[in-house]
Amino acid sequence: MYTEDDLEWMAVITCLKDTGMSIKDIKKFVALCALGDCTLEERRQMVLARKKNVELKIAKLQQHLEHIHFKADYDEAACKAGTEAELKKRKYPSPFKL
């Protein structure tokens, strides 16, 4: 039987793992938590680093999604026309943002 605290810890560990945190860093985070309030700032910095990493991944995935939307629209238009010939003559804005 798991307690509510056990389930909460499993959720935290799963979240950290799913965001790409290494097992080594997860162990460090858990150990810091066990040490208490004297580690609050170090834990906060670890969480902020994860947050930044996840935000960067989301931004990159958003760019990929925009490209997929563009490609799906392009392919739909080509299928309706039965050819890409006319579409290739047009200038489309790049779905990539540099």
What assembly state would you assign to the polypeptide chains in this entry? Answer: single chain
Helix-strand category: mainly alpha
SSE order, as H and E?
HHHH
Fraction in helix: over 70%
Mean pLDDT: 91
The CA-CA distance between the termini, in Å, is 51 Å
Tell me, what is the CATH class? Answer: Mainly Alpha
Tally of discrete structural domains: 1
How many helical elements? 4
What's the main sheet like?
none
User: Count of DSSP E strands?
Assistant: 0
Kindly provide the radius of gyration, computed on alpha-carbon positions and rounded to a whole number of angstroms: 23 Å
What is the fold named in CATH at topology level? Multidrug-efflux Transporter Regulator, Chain: A, Domain 2
Which of globular, elongated, flat, extended, rod-shaped describes the shape?
Answer: elongated
Name the poorly predicted regions.
Answer: none
- Content of β-strand: under 5%
CATH architectural type: Orthogonal Bundle
